[in-house]
From TrEMBL:
<feature type="domain" description="Oxidoreductase molybdopterin-binding">
    <location>
        <begin position="104"/>
        <end position="249"/>
    </location>
</feature>
<dbReference type="InterPro" id="IPR036374">
    <property type="entry name" value="OxRdtase_Mopterin-bd_sf"/>
</dbReference>
<protein>
    <submittedName>
        <fullName>Molybdopterin-binding protein</fullName>
    </submittedName>
</protein>
<dbReference type="Pfam" id="PF00174">
    <property type="entry name" value="Oxidored_molyb"/>
</dbReference>
<dbReference type="InterPro" id="IPR006311">
    <property type="entry name" value="TAT_signal"/>
</dbReference>
<dbReference type="InterPro" id="IPR000572">
    <property type="entry name" value="OxRdtase_Mopterin-bd_dom"/>
</dbReference>
Length: 260
């Protein structure tokens, strides 16, 4: 029997691999490249024929979903991210976004309200003054960017799990989904177990000062157990839901869990 080809005529295998790897989780992508990526390797990973870029992207999306499931399974909701002394704080703490600081949302505190939606008992909107009256704690933790750099900062705010309890959120739901004021409608889902982690925080201050515009004023969600892109800034709404709504980077192939 003739050996079956995994390529369709006219397809450049090298370009196909390069295109397909864009949808692979970052860690998996590095390991896959280090191991010598090939269409045959992709086929062995899944037991499926990989004959074009469409089937490769579909397969890699499945690998990413599996990667999320494994990370969620091994996640320990009681394990804390490391904390540091004030002397370890990175100065200046870097601004990081997919746009320049001049293009960051410039939000009026007087006009801003946090919208609460989904599976909660109390759907009232919260003003910044109301949120600032909530009991707050300070953490000095490391922000780890998917691009390979990290920085240590001091963040003060209300534990998200306390706020979810206050509004009567159904903590049996799968996600808390955040919508932000960033250009292009930045949004991101957070799995409920991570949302209930004791260090996950609704952050209102940086270095004991009102959160600067560069770091997400009027509110960011600080999740020290996750990569930086899972720490949404300029938050305008949160929704407790069982529906996976995707996210800005998640829809571009990044792992949704992206944490420890």
């Amino acid at each position: 029997m003739a050996k079956r080809s995994f390529l369709i005529p006219g397809v450049d295998k090298r370009l196909l691999i390069k295109d397909s790897l864009k949808t692979m989780p970052d860690v998996t992508r590095r390991r896959f490249i280090a191991g010598g990526a090939s269409l045959g390797a992709l086929t062995l990973l899944t037991g499926c024929d990989v004959i074009d870029s469409s089937s490769a992207e579909t397969m890699l999306a499945k690998v990413s979903k599996f990667n999320d499931a494994v990370q969620a399974f091994i996640f320990n909701p009681d394990a804390l991210a490391p904390t540091f002394p004030e002397s370890a704080i990175t100065k200046p703490f870097p601004f990081n976004a997919y746009y320049d600081l001049d293009d960051a949302p410039d939000i009026s505190a007087a006009d801003w309200k946090l919208e609460v939606r989904g599976l909660v008992d109390n759907k009232k909107s919260w003003t910044l003054d109301e949120l600032h009256k909530l009991p707050q704690v300070t953490q000095i933790t490391r922000h780890i960017c998917v691009e390979g750099w990290s920085a240590i900062g001091s963040w003060t705010g209300a534990p998200l799990r306390d706020f979810l309890k206050l509004i009567g959120a159904d903590t049996r739901a799968k996600y808390v989904w955040f919508q932000c004021a960033d250009k292009d409608g930045y949004n991101s889902p957070l799995d409920m177990r991570s949302a209930l982690h004791p260090q996950t925080q609704m952050t209102f201050k940086y270095a004991n000062e009102i959160l600067p515009r560069a770091y997400g004023f009027p509110m960011k969600i600080r999740v020290p157990t996750k990569l930086g892109f899972k720490n949404p800034k300029y938050v305008v709404s949160m929704e407790v839901t069982n529906d996976y709504k995707g996210g800005y980077w998640e829809d571009q192939g990044y792992n949704s869990f992206s944490g420890s």
